[in-house]
Specification:
The complex is a heterodimer of chains A (274) and B (174). Chain A has two domains: 112 residues, Thrombin, subunit H; 80 residues, Thrombin, subunit H (Beta Barrel), CATH 2.40.10.350. Chain A is built from five helices and twelve strands. In chain A, the strands form two sheets. Chain A has a six-stranded antiparallel β-barrel. Chain A has a six-stranded antiparallel barrel with strand order 6-7-8-11-10-9. Chain B has one domain. Chain B is globular and about 50 Å long. Classes of the chains: A alpha+beta (274), B mainly alpha (174). At the A-B interface, α2 and α3 of A face α3, α4 and α6 of B.
C-alpha cells in the first residue's frame, strides 16, 4: 500500500498531466457532438455579457454601413411586397388554402461576437431560450446563409458559422438543379467548396448555389454563394469547385434566426423511417 | 518579494495577458488568417521558477480553459497549455546557463537576457502552437495548411511576446 502511495507521489506531476490531458480530450470530443446548453463557451451569461459590452462600443463604428444594408434590404422587401400585392389583386377570387401554416418564422438577432480567422468559427447572438431559440435552427444574414445554432443559454446562443468543418450544407446549383454539398476548407472566409458534383454535369462560373429542400435546417433556396473557379482533374469523378460566399462573414452585424414550424413533424416522420 | 506580493503580481499578469488575448488578439490575424497570436502563454512562461510542478499544470489548465471559453474551443487551448506547463521545467533545465540559475530568479527577458529568453520562448511557442493547430484543424484534411499556420503563428506570437517583455520588464535589472 505504502509503495502505491510512494509511486503516486513520485510521479504526481506526470499523473496529473496525463489525467488533465485526458479530461481535455474528453471535452474536445464531447463539445463536437454536443448540442443544447453548454457552460464553457460564449453563450455563457457572463462571457456573453463582456462581449456585448465590447460590441456595444465597436458597433458605433459600423453604424453607417449597417444602416445602408438595412435600407437596401428594406427596399428589396418592399419590391417583393408590391409583387405579391399585385398578384393578389389578380387572383382575388381564388380561394386561399386555410389549412396551410406558415412554415418559417424569422427572428432578428444582433451579432455579439463573430470570428472568421480561426480554424473553427462561431458567432454569438443576443437571442436565447427566452426568445424561443433552440439548437439546430438555421441562421441567415441579409445576403444569405450564415450558420446553425449550436448551444443556447437564456439570453444568448452560439452559432456554428459556415466557416466551420462541421457545416455540410445540402445545397443545389440553381442552374440545372444539380445537388451538391457546400463545405468550408479552413482558410479564406470569402471562399468555400462545392462537393459531389459529378463530371457529366454542365456548370459555369457565376452560377448561384442555394440550399436544397433536403435540408432540415434551412428553407429551400437560401443563397449561399456563386461558383468561382472550377477544375476537373483527370480520372476524378467530381469537379473541384470554389464557391464565393454571398455573405461577407467579416462584416456581420444583424442576422435572422429561422424557426421551422414544421420541424417537429418532419423529424418525427424521418425518425419513423430510421 | 513576499508571498502575497508574488500572488498579486502574477494575478495582474494573468489579467493582463488573458485580457490582451480575448479582447485584442482574438480579432487579429495576419497573412490571410494564417498567423494568429497567442500571447496568453507568456503567463505560463513567466510563472516563478520554484512553482511546484503540479500547480504549474493546474494553472495551465485554468488559463487554457479560460481562453477556450472565448474561442468556443473547449479543451483545445487547455490541452496545449497543459502540455507546455508540464514541459516547462524540462525546457528550463535544458537551457541552464553556465553556473546555473540564481536562487529566486525571475523568468523574464530582464533577468535572463535576450538570447536565453528568445530560445525559451521559441521552444514553448512551437510546442504549444503545434499541439494547438493540429487538434484545431482535425476537421480538415489539410496538413500543409496546418503546418503553414503553425509556422506563421509561431513567428507572430514570438514577436509579440518579446515586445511585451520589453514593455513589462522589471526595472530592477536596469
Amino acid at each position: 500500500m505504502y509503495r502505491i502511495f510512494e509511486f503516486i507521489y513520485r510521479y504526481r506531476a506526470f499523473l496529473s498531466f496525463f489525467l488533465i490531458e485526458v479530461l481535455c480530450i474528453w471535452m474536445i470530443v464531447s463539445f463536437n457532438t454536443y448540442q443544447g446548453a453548454a457552460f464553457f463557451n460564449t453563450s455563457n451569461y457572463y462571457v456573453a455579457g463582456v462581449l456585448s459590452l465590447e460590441q456595444n462600443v465597436s458597433s458605433y463604428f459600423s453604424l453607417n454601413k449597417v444602416n445602408e444594408e438595412l435600407a437596401a434590404q428594406n427596399a428589396d422587401l418592399l419590391n417583393q411586397l408590391n409583387h405579391i400585392r399585385q398578384n393578389k389583386n389578380l387572383s382575388e377570387n381564388i380561394l386561399t388554402d386555410t389549412t396551410s401554416t406558415i412554415q418559417y418564422g424569422y427572428l432578428p438577432a444582433r451579432v455579439v461576437k463573430n470570428t472568421t480567422r480561426l480554424p473553427e468559427n462561431f458567432l454569438t447572438l443576443n437571442k436565447g431560450t427566452l426568445d424561443g431559440v433552440m439548437p439546430d435552427m438555421g441562421v441567415v444574414g441579409p445576403d444569405g446563409l450564415v450558420g446553425r445554432v449550436k448551444t443556447v443559454s437564456k439570453h444568448f446562443c452560439t452559432v456554428v458559422s459556415m466557416l466551420h468543418s462541421g457545416m455540410n450544407v445540402a445545397s443545389r446549383i440553381k442552374n440545372g438543379n444539380i445537388d451538391a454539398t457546400v463545405v468550408w476548407d479552413g482558410l479564406d472566409p470569402r471562399e468555400g467548396k462545392v462537393l459531389h458534383v459529378v463530371r457529366h454535369h454542365k456548370i459555369a462560373q457565376g452560377d448561384s448555389v442555394v440550399t436544397s429542400e433536403y435540408n432540415a435546417v434551412f428553407p429551400e433556396g437560401v443563397m449561399i454563394g456563386t461558383i468561382g473557379e472550377f477544375t476537373l482533374g483527370e480520372g476524378s469523378s467530381d469537379y473541384d469547385i470554389q464557391l464565393n460566399f454571398s455573405t461577407d462573414f467579416t462584416a456581420l452585424s444583424y442576422v435572422y434566426i429561422i424557426k421551422n414550424n414544421l420541424r417537429a413533424e418532419r423529424d418525427s416522420l424521418e425518425n419513423v423511417i430510421k | 518579494m513576499t508571498r502575497a506580493g508574488q500572488i498579486i503580481t502574477y494575478s495582474l499578469y494573468f489579467i493582463l495577458f488573458v485580457a490582451l488575448q480575448v479582447l485584442l488578439f482574438l480579432h487579429l490575424a495576419l497573412f490571410d488568417g494564417r498567423a494568429l497570436c497567442f500571447i496568453y502563454i507568456t503567463f505560463i512562461m513567466m510563472l516563478p521558477y520554484q512553482t511546484p510542478h503540479v500547480l504549474l499544470i493546474l494553472i495551465g489548465f485554468g488559463t487554457g480553459l479560460f481562453v477556450d471559453v472565448f474561442y468556443n474551443s473547449p479543451g483545445i487551448h487547455a490541452f496545449a497549455t497543459v502540455l507546455v506547463a508540464y514541459l516547462r521545467p524540462y525546457i528550463i533545465n535544458l537551457l541552464t546557463p553556465r553556473g546555473g540559475y540564481d536562487e529566486g530568479v525571475i523568468i523574464s527577458i530582464g533577468s535572463l537576457g535576450v538570447q536565453w529568453f528568445l530560445s525559451y520562448a521559441a521552444v514553448v511557442i512551437v510546442v504549444h502552437h503545434t499541439a494547438l493547430f493540429f487538434i484545431w484543424s482535425l476537421g480538415y484534411n489539410s496538413l500543409f495548411l496546418t503546418i503553414e499556420k503553425i509556422l506563421a503563428s509561431s513567428v507572430f506570437s514570438l514577436v509579440m511576446i518579446i515586445l511585451v517583455q520589453y514593455l513589462i520588464q522589471s526595472p530592477r535589472k536596469n
